[in-house]
Amino acid sequence: MTLVPFDDRDGVIWLDGAFAPWREARLHVLSHGLHYGGGVFEGVRVYGGRLFKSAEHALRLHASAQELNFRIPFTAAELDAAARETVRRQGISDGYVRPVAWRGSEQISVSGTGARVHVAIAAWEWPHVFSAASQDQGIRLKTSRWRRPSPDTAPVRAKAASLYNIGTLARDEAEAAGYDDALLLDFRGYVAEATGANLFLVVDGALHTPIADTFLNGITRQTVIALARESGIAVHERRIQPEELARADEVFLTGTAYEVQPVRAVDDRPYGVGRTTTALADAYRRLVRAADPLPSADRVGADAPDGRR
């Protein structure tokens, strides 16, 4: 398969308040964010030309920047509007939007004080992460040697670019071993998440999911938990030991890019794609294809600091 480089495409990218030709949306090689990991980002899905929970993602971008001690020079409302206009100009039907903010090149030192903050928003067609077969039959996860860090050693509440290096290392090793993604434990040895998606187990018809204290409490995760409770499915957020994976009847992942993705195996343990996973995937699909759900102000305010993917 020939990959189309992301720096050589047609269209426009919103950059620092104005639209620039796609190939001209650049940053300097001495940008602070590139050297010291001072960047945050979001991922927003587009369904039928409509952005799903774009306002929540814009608020979470602000919250992530605050965790990294810098301020985004555009309001959440301005970012939301810019994302919608980017999608319109790009003519996206089913795709993905990537807002990103980073410290600029005013200085190169460990301290980021005084560096200008830049913001960009790009959008492209991207219907699914995995193949249709993988969506139906599930993907395979390999438990990684890499772990999610303690909250006192990394900004785990932020969707920070620097934290995704752990996921990249884990995902590359899993794919090299023939798996689709990796399962990460946290620093204590509890089950945490996949490289870019939250984890759910189905045990005796109830959902069990790790407490989100070393990783992002995803916006999709929160949405699926709400859908489950509305359907009368019990949800337990708790510490999960790796050996408890043997008790699960079903396993699935959630994320903006992954949506509700069944898992057919973790290491050498197989799982079926059962009724609970299928029902929640169908409910999520109906929700995102409906009118763009704009959350209430109090809901957004509550979700923004902890939200995810």
Beta-strand content bin: 25-35%
Give me the number of helical elements. 8
From the alpha carbons, calculate the radius of gyration and give it in angstroms.
19 Å
Taking the sheet with the most strands, its summary is: 9 strands, mixed
The CATH class designation of the largest domain is Alpha Beta
Number of domains: 2
Structural class: alpha+beta
The CATH architecture of the largest domain would be: Alpha-Beta Barrel
The first-to-last residue Cα distance is 27 Å
What would you call the shape?
Answer: globular
Average predicted local confidence, pLDDT = 92
Query: Ranges with pLDDT <50 over ≥5 residues?
Result: 292-308
Tell me the CATH topology of the largest domain: D-amino Acid Aminotransferase, Chain A, domain 2
Helix proportion range:
25-40%
Order of helices and strands: EEHEEEHHEEHEHEEEEHEEEEHH
